[in-house]
Design a protein that fits this description.
single chain; 430 residues; alpha/beta; Adenylosuccinate Synthetase, Chain A, domain 1; Adenylosuccinate Synthetase, subunit A, domain 2; Adenylosuccinate Synthetase, Chain A, domain 3; 3 domains; 4-stranded mixed β-sheet; 20 strands; 31% helix; globular
Amino acid sequence: MSCRVIIGTQWGDEGKAKIIDYFTAGADFIVRYQGGANAGHTVVVNGKKFVFHLVPSGMLHPGKTCVIGNGVVVDPEQLLREIAVLEKEGYEVRSNLLISDAAHLILPYHKALDEAMEELRTNKIGTTKRGIGESYSDKCLRVGVRAGDLLDESLLRERLSQTVRMKNLQLEKIYGKPVMQAEAIIADLLRYRDEIGGMITNTPYLLHAALHSGKRVLLEGAQGNMLDIDHGTYPYVTSSNPTIGGALMGSGLNAFDITEVVGITKAYVTRVGEGPFPTEDHCEAGALLRERGGEFGATTGRPRRCGWFDAVSLREVVRINSVSGLCITKLDVLDGLETINMCVGYEDSSGHIVGTPRDSADFESLVPIYETVAGWEGSTIGITAWDQLPLNARRYIERIAEVVGVGVDIVSTGPDRTETIILRDPFGRA
């Protein structure tokens, strides 16, 4: 039995999709377990770039079963767009993609309410306005529409008619926005049903059966752990759990099924949108990292805030998720820097050394404690062997492992799946 989890350890955009794509060859099932179309996973294969929002990143490998788990909120319109792009490129999707019948759907009123609420906020959260939080809210309020509801038209009409009345009251009376027509939404959903209905099934049952028959399962999350709704920089967080707990709940597997947890981290740190960022560099170095790293959101196109590696927050993420090994991505972005900063602690206003706070407000008084390490000359792009890396690049990676307290298994030296150094293969692939 083999079930591996790939987790983003920062504020998202760590390069998870490339690593997932790389190891999909050794998996039978690839499962997306949380989030929605607010995620943007970029994979480059033979110079061709693919951006995934809902479809699991493993779809680029033939013969794999890709699963959208029950923890995902699905925008059917976005899903069909992704399927169309992949089919245009010659990939077989419909026979290889399954959708949990318990996955909640994102509907037009979710997007409208998301945008209206963000407009009224004094302190903007930085939502993508794609209805993610509103859909998760409906899930908790028990008024959501699930993928399985598409297969029962009478139930769908009953649930949706009731919910649309509630949402229209919010849109009109609270936000002064146009109301929605239930019949128009139902008509769209029935059209979506005709397209994806054959993919909808009881995915937890399927995954349990697959695992216990010797199949290999790979779980992928969206966003990063510092955006977790429980363990992130609240309230500047996403509406789901990218942590290991989210992997279990969002796939239907249990803790004893997990055999390996790989944490993906950039060689520096980025963040999109609002919220605390203690190691953010507002000067020349931050701009350089953004330019070199192409740090613009795959989903929104927004420029990412950039800063130095934060070992303090990473130690917390490793502890919460029982991370067994790290993958360092975008090492090449640091090429040519004379010196590199690494945050090894935080100091509060009273001079005390502290760990990672729970609430974003508690970050305001923190000052990062930096350790400066020597940079390296020459390029690391495309290097596939450890001993070919510049000495100081190796020392930097070794120092990360030492400070964080967990070994580095993989180093990514470029966007293509071939541009990878494997130090220890956590997925058992030769």
